[in-house]
Design goal:
single chain, 63 residues, alpha+beta, two-stranded antiparallel sheet, 5 strands, globular
């Protein structure tokens, strides 16, 4: 399963939302008004499916 990610609106860095799923589940999901405490800037970000993406294998192995 891949991690569901968003970009921090302040830093642009990737942030793990705490959710993981496969591509089919992600495509058929209706993720609305979710929130995550951002480790990059310390703020709580509210996000929706259109803000999110699945982490690729390459992304997962970058420092």
């Amino acid at each position: 399963m891949a991690r569901v990610m968003i970009a921090c609106p302040d830093t642009g860095k990737p942030v793990y939302t705490g959710m993981s799923c496969d591509e089919v589940t992600f495509e058929t999901s209706q993720l609305t008004d979710k929130s995550v405490l951002c480790p990059e800037c310390g703020q709580v970000h509210t996000w929706n499916k259109q803000d999110a993406y699945l982490e690729s294998e390459e992304d997962a192995h970058q420092p």
